[in-house]
Specification:
By secondary structure, the chain is mainly α. The protein has five helices and no strands. The longest helix has 54 residues.
Length: 191
C-alpha cells in the first residue's frame, strides 16, 4: 500500500467534510420536524384536559355550555389520542433524539476533517494517523445512520446545502447555489 501524500489527504478531508455537512443538515431538518410534532402532541395533551376541566368546573357538567364544549373538544381529544398513540408506536421521541445527536455528530466530523485539511501536521505519519481516527469515527456514524436512510429528495437537499456552504459548482446544473430554494436540477434541486 502506498502512503498518500498530503495533498491527497487534504482533498479526501474536504470531500468527506462536504458530504458530512450535508448529512448533518438533513438530520437537523428531521429533528426540527419531529420537534414540531411532539410539541403539538404535548400542547394538545395538556390543553384538552385543562379546557374540559375549566369548562366543567365553571359551568357544571349539566350546563348547555359544557355540553357544547364537550362536543367540540371530544373529537379533538380523540385526534390527540390517535397522535399520541402513533408517536409511541413509531417512537417519534426516540427518532427526534437520534436525528439531533446524528446532526451534531456529523457536523463535528465535518469540522474535524476541515480542520485536518487546513492544519495538517508537519509529519505525514501524524496526519495519516489523525485522518484514520476521524475516518473510523465517520464510518461508525455512517453505519449507525444507515438505520434511517435518506430519501432521494433529502439527498438532493443535502447536496444543495453543502454546495451552497462550500461555494462549489453543481455538476448537474453548473451553478453555485445561493439559497435553499429548489431548482430544476436533478442533482441539487427537485426536492
Amino acid at each position: 500500500m502506498t502512503t498518500p501524500n498530503i495533498d491527497e489527504l487534504k482533498r479526501s478531508c474536504h470531500e468527506k467534510a462536504f458530504h458530512l455537512y450535508g448529512t448533518a443538515f438533513i438530520y437537523g431538518v428531521r429533528a426540527r420536524e419531529r420537534e414540531k410534532y411532539t410539541q403539538a402532541i404535548t400542547l394538545l395533551g395538556v390543553m384538552i384536559p385543562v379546557l374540559v376541566g375549566a369548562v366543567v368546573t365553571s359551568y357544571g357538567l349539566d350546563s348547555p355550555i359544557s355540553s357544547i364544549f364537550l362536543k367540540i373538544l371530544t373529537p379533538i381529544a380523540v385526534f390527540q389520542l390517535v397522535l399520541s398513540t402513533l408517536a409511541l408506536v413509531y417512537k417519534w421521541d426516540d427518532k427526534k433524539s437520534y436525528y439531533l445527536e446524528s446532526s451534531i455528530s456529523n457536523r463535528q466530523l465535518a469540522e474535524d476533517f476541515t480542520h485536518l485539511a487546513k492544519f495538517p501536521s508537519q509529519e505525514i505519519t501524524e496526519t495519516i494517523h489523525a485522518y484514520e481516527i476521524i475516518i473510523t469515527k465517520a464510518q461508525s456514524r455512517e453505519d449507525q445512520d444507515d438505520r434511517y436512510p435518506f430519501t432521494s429528495k433529502e439527498f438532493k437537499k443535502g447536496m444543495r446545502y453543502s454546495l451552497r456552504q462550500y461555494q462549489k459548482v453543481c455538476s448537474g446544473c453548473g451553478i453555485v447555489p445561493v439559497s435553499m430554494e429548489p431548482s430544476d436540477c436533478e442533482i441539487c434541486g427537485n426536492f
